[in-house]
Specification:
globular; 9 strands; single chain; D-Maltodextrin-Binding Protein, domain 2; about 325 residues; alpha+beta; 4-stranded mixed β-sheet
Length: about 325
């Protein structure tokens, strides 16, 4: 963005999240706050960590939610018997679930996802680690205080993970495809993925039994989500028009259209507990769309209630490195 060009930019609204938003804000090139004051902001919970923080960066009204992705656990075991918290996962593994779960090495996105879910449960999320880890003595001290419980948990469950038939030791597959293959072969019963539709697709393909469900952890801590947003550049020529478009994006009608499986099929981050949404039957409509895709899909109410925001990338990098040090190679 050209220096001092604050009025005649070529772009009125940008689709953005993560490091791009961080850079836009730090450079002073984002207009706002506006997102939490336009009329359709009432359709969202701006205090939810999945909206309040964009990968650990406070949004502070400079970003308006667009679509979201949310992680889920996938269970193909006995109906209604799935573990609903990280502690229940541990108890299940130590008993009837021994050898029935595997997660990938953290070099795989879903392996990192599982480890970060444990981190959220035992150390905390963006509401605890409120600023980047790098060059921050207070956050470094907090990380060093809280992270050992995570490595202890992961080492505690290591003997109960799926074991390599050749060596008898726990294995950490290199890809999620390898983890899925174990589940398709009925060697494991539990998986996690950043795709709420994955279980339904695999049921349709005959890879998983019909009673398989995708679900969120309800007891501890929830499941991690990744929201994307729209933002207004500081040099937007008509900020009022940009806000009007952003406000339209947040309308229930626009969100429903984006959620339709025949179109985008994108998960929406609206707040299903808002009275004007709940009372008008919108949750029923959104759930109809998802159940039309697959009955294995969790309800929009459950997804929203247990949705967690991502940590800042500096924590993700450190968590992955420390997993190799304290768990993977320990």
């Amino acid at each position: 963005m050209a220096a001092m060009n604050t009025a005649n930019g070529m772009c009125g609204l940008v689709w953005i999240n993560g490091v791009n938003f961080k850079n836009l804000r730090e450079a002073g090139n984002a207009y706002g706050p506006w997102a939490d004051i336009v009329p359709n902001s009432v359709n969202f919970d701006f205090e939810s960590t999945a909206i309040k923080y964009d990968k650990g960066v406070p949004t502070e009204g400079y970003e308006f939610p667009y679509n979201t992705a949310q992680s889920v656990f996938i269970w193909s075991g006995a109906p209604e018997a799935q573990p609903l918290s990280v502690n229940e996962i541990k108890r299940w593994l130590e008993n009837e679930g021994k050898g029935k779960f595997a997660y990938a090495n953290v070099t795989d996105f879903t392996g990192s996802l599982f480890v970060r879910t444990i981190f959220h449960a035992l150390a905390g999320g963006a509401e605890v680690f409120t600023s980047p880890l790098t060059a921050n003595a207070a956050m470094e001290a907090r990380y060093m205080q809280k992270s050992p419980a995570v490595w202890q948990f992961l080492n505690d469950i290591k003997p109960y993970l799926y074991q390599d038939p050749a060596t008898g030791g726990a294995i950490y597959p290199q890809t999620h495809a390898e983890v899925q293959q174990l589940m398709w072969s009925n060697l494991t019963l539990l998986d996690c993925a950043y795709d709420v539709n994955l279980a339904g697709r695999q049921i349709d393909l005959g890879n998983l039994p019909p009673h398989t469900v995708a679900y969120v952890l309800e007891g501890q801590p929830g499941t991690i989500a990744n929201t994307n947003y729209v933002a207004i550049p500081i040099n937007a020529q008509s900020r009022a028009a940009s806000m009007a478009v952003g406000n339209f994006i947040g309308s229930l009608e626009a969100m429903f259209t984006r959620n339709e499986p025949e179109g985008w099929g994108a998960l929406q981050s609206y707040n299903p507990k808002v009275p004007h949404i709940e009372g008008a039957g919108w949750n029923t409509a959104f759930n109809y769309l998802e159940n039309h895709v697959s009955p294995a899909y969790p309800s929009v109410e459950k997804l929203a209630e247990f949705r967690l925001g991502e940590l800042h990338s500096t924590y993700v990098e450190r968590i992955e490195a420390d997993w190799h040090t304290f768990v993977g190679f320990a």
